[in-house]
Write a structure and sequence with these properties.
Structural class: mainly alpha
Largest sheet: 2 strands, antiparallel
Order of helices and strands: EEHH
Helix content: over 70%
Number of strands: 2
Number of helices: 2
Distance between the termini: 143 Å
Strand content: under 5%
Shape: rod-shaped
Length: 187
């Protein structure tokens, strides 16, 4: 709050010194209560007649002045508190708006990130499917080539084995070769 540097000091006004009225300048001091002037009994003039109506009127004026001062202090304090409350409400609303904006921004960023992840996943799956298709095509080509060549190899092997014949045929041929070789040596 806005605090003035003046002290809360009661002062006597010169024309009212005789009546004992006190003029108090009250300022809001955050560490103390509003200063209420101390009660000073009114000075009664030395004479036969005492004007009680005048004393009562001055006392009433003094009480009214004190009451008005207290009311002014109260309303000034209340006005400051209202301003602080309004400032606090404004700050809360600004903070809520900022938080909502931040949340919206984060949500948008998260949505974009999810979309990028989904695109990346789809792209990887397409690449993998394409790669699998290429690998399958290569395997089929290799297998078809192997089948053609392997079939040719089997034909060659079967012809080679077929020319040799079965195991018994090969044995007979060997034996025949041995017998012929032996008979040639004897000659």
């Amino acid at each position: 709050p806005d605090v003035t540097s003046s002290l809360c000091v009661p002062t006597l006004l010169p024309d009212e010194e005789a009546a004992g009225l006190l003029m108090v300048s009250i300022h809001f001091c955050p560490h103390s209560r509003p200063v209420v002037p101390p009660l000073i009994p009114p000075k009664i003039p030395e004479g036969e007649r005492v004007d009680f109506d005048d004393i009562h009127r001055k006392r009433m004026e003094k009480d009214l002045l004190e009451l008005q001062t207290l009311i002014d202090v109260h309303f000034e304090q209340r006005k400051k508190e209202e301003e602080e409350l309004i400032a606090l409400k404004d700050r809360i609303e600004r903070r809520r708006a900022e938080r909502a904006e931040q949340q919206r921004f984060r949500t948008e960023k998260e949505r974009e990130r999810q979309a990028k992840l989904a695109e990346e996943k789809m792209r990887k799956e397409e690449e993998e499917a394409k790669k699998r298709a290429e690998d399958d095509a290569k395997k089929k080509k290799v297998l078809s080539n192997m089948g053609a060549h392997f079939g040719g190899y089997l034909v060659k092997v079967s012809l080679a084995w077929g020319s040799l014949g079965s195991a018994s045929t090969r044995r007979r041929r060997r034996e025949g070769k041995l017998q012929r070789a032996g008979s040639e040596e004897q000659d």
